Amino acid sequence: MTEGASTALSGFLTNIGTVFTAATGWIGEVVGVIMDTPILLVPFALGIGFTAIQMFKSLRD
Question: Can you tell me the distance from the alpha carbon of 13 to that of 18, in angstroms, rounded to the nearest whole number?
Answer without folding.
Answer: 9
